[in-house]
Amino acid sequence: MTLAVLLTCVIARVVDARNVKPIVSINDAMQSANIDGSVRFFFAQQKAPAVAKRLGSASVHEKVSTRPERDEESCKAAFREALQALQKRAQRAGADAVVNIVSYFRNETTASPTEFQCHAGAAAHVLLRGEWCSWRTKIRNGEVIPIGIASHRNSPILLAHPPQVDRVIVQNVFSLLLRRG
Q1: Residue 107: exposure state from Cβ atoms within 10 A (0-12, 13-18, ≥19)
Q2: Cβ(79)–Cβ(29) under 8 Å?
Q3: 113 and 145, same domain (yes or no)
Q4: Distance of CA 70 to CAs 22, 48, 83, 115, Å?
Q5: Residues 48 and 64 in one domain
Q6: Which of 3, 41, 113, 121 has its CA 20 to 30 A from that of 136?
Q7: What end-to-end distance do the CA atoms of the chain give, in Å?
Q8: In Å, how far from its chain's centre is CA 181?
Q9: Which structural domain range is residue 108 located in?
Q10: What is the model's pTM?
Q11: SS3 of 171, please?
């Protein structure tokens, strides 16, 4: 008799297990993200600035407990925590951007610049994978060097942000540096 009761409880629990897969908007999830701006995020096919140096890759898995009526909010909270974890790892690696970010679960990948996948059951799970890189550069003696590469303290250095500096300005800076050199 006790074996029958035990089997009934186990079967009832397995039937009760949820595995829903909401697809959630990245913009909605980022509304209240605690991201300081020191690391920029580029999802899937989003156009990113020219990469000066690739520094590695990372995967993060964050989860937040949930109830069926709160799946989407829990997914957003797990996504924000995953972004914060990516930001911390990128900062430790000396990166200033994470590119090609995709969400995934088991063998299913969502490579979208506008949405991410989440898996909700007893908890909302968000798994993100991306590549750390440096796109900011130092210009020293006419040479472009990715930030994170050792440089001389006394050397005059100009910090260039490729999205904000157009080609003509960079050419003028190079010619000025070459004249100094």
Answers
A1: exposed
A2: yes
A3: no
A4: 11, 33, 20, 18
A5: yes
A6: 113
A7: 90
A8: 39
A9: 19-134
A10: 0.66
A11: helix
Residue 103's closest CA among 81, 121, 122, 79?
79
In a domain, 10, yes or no: no
* Total domains present in the chain: 2
Report pLDDT digits (tens) over 86-142: 999 999 988 989 999 999 988 889 999 999 999 998 899 999 999 999 876 655 565
Q: Which residues of 147-171 are buried (b: 16+ CB within 10 A; e: fewer)?
A: bbeeeeeeeebeebebeeeeeeebe
Residue 125 sits in the same domain as residue 164: no
* Whether residue 142 sits in one domain with residue 103: no
What pLDDT sits at residue 134?
A: 86
- DSSP assigned state of 53: E
pLDDT band, very low/low/confident/very high, at 19 (cuts 50, 70, 90):
confident
pLDDT above 90: percentage of residues in the chain? 30
- 11 domain residue, yes or no: no
CA-CA distance, 165 to 157, in Å (whole number)? 15
